[in-house]
Amino acid sequence: MRRILATTASLICLLALAACGDEDTPASGSSDPVTIEVTFSDGTVTPQGERVEVETGQDVELQITADEPGEIHVHSTPEQELEYAAGESTLTIANLDAPGVVDVESHTLDQVIVQLEVS
Ligand SMILES: [Cu+2]
């Protein structure tokens, strides 16, 4: 009887492990960052105001291509200002710890690049 119970337990364990590795990543910051490609060119930015879903504690990586250097303003709490150079660079937005909508803006262009829906 005991042996059967033990076998059942390890079977459940295996199933749980398999399910875990599938899709649901924990929101503990150990998940991969969300990557967003951002292009600055001729005074405009792409994307513009696009909504992107992010989990609490998950980092966002902005892969920037720019024709001029500039600064990105992240309306998180506290706010973050991130500078980028002309050419290609990667900026990381971290510490998205509170649920809500966080605007990511270029004040140079006065445009909203993305809105992060942190949940
Ligand atoms: Cu701003």
Automatic annotation (TrEMBL):
InterPro entries: Cupredoxin. This is Unannotated protein. The lineage of its organism: unclassified sequences, metagenomes, ecological metagenomes. It comes from freshwater metagenome. PROSITE patterns: PROKAR_LIPOPROTEIN.
